[in-house]
């Protein structure tokens, strides 16, 4: 990447706007609504996709294309469009809604891990590929210090989703194998990816925001260390020492002195100060990880309890409603100005918990309605199955593709969003002129 292109890209990435909480909520639940509409259409028309490619193409046009449209051209009207999608979804419920009870709904899958993983990965991958294009509003980007954007929320929700996936190693494996399973399958590959990303960025001179994670740090390192720390804390001999870890680290290093410094040359050395953001954000990300893991474990115990499905639904709804109202009230009292993804502040952790409970409740409601319509006979979405099973792979591919495109092309000079409206007006005017000329030809010949 040449110097002029790098400077132009840095100036473009410094443009960060403000995104409201209702807009974040609407965009976050939009994939859930689209998946519900997809399932309802498949059930109503009795569609049966025998081939995976047909199922994926149908899901692409039903889910992926509307989300791309929402994140780019229609971003200024995101709330109104999501409300229309919601009205359409609940209107479809009355077309073919069964009044049967939920007795056959024995496995409620309360946390809806597949739907949540699909939503988080879909929004994360699309935002990674679109955020460097002028067609995508800059208010969706990560904030430098304080504030919230869609990508700020996506970072926390990605770790929250990984906690559900990581529950396999914590609940289903023995004490002697869970630690090494996590290290071999997750920690080491993520550390290697983080090292490769740092070396490639340094070697190619690729633009990187120091205030995001640090000089040598990146999201893959954070992800690896969070999973490593979770495995260590769950080890009996190490878990007793975890309570004082953050206090000792902050006291010894004294990173708060230089954490707000935007001057890169001040934090050239030592190594700890150059990566202060990544180190100080680890306790917050660990809190997100274990809070979500605790919620999943509670839902898991409720699901396997010997009570009726209606009682399970009541307890689940009451618990998540309480968490949403409590976390939302505390956030309202604290204010949104102190939320920082950069530091993984307590306000940020609380907001991620609020988002997780809200999305889980919303997903569960749509899943119950979908079951009432299809009675469990709807063909599952191929997009959900593929994305949720190989999420980290697609996340890595999106990062590689985005980096390659930004390195080869100057994406800042791509067509901005307002050009689409002018292009549409131009095409409409041309069509009107052609139609008018066709009408005038018979009169002129006479």
Automatic annotation (TrEMBL):
Family of the protein in this entry: Belongs to the PIGW family.
Top-level taxon: Eukaryota
InterPro entries reported for this sequence: PIGW/GWT1 (IPR009447)
GO cellular component assignments: endoplasmic reticulum membrane
Annotated EC: 2.3.-.-
Function: A acetyltransferase, which acetylates the inositol ring of phosphatidylinositol during biosynthesis of GPI-anchor.
Name of protein: Phosphatidylinositol-glycan biosynthesis class W protein
Record organism: Echinostoma caproni
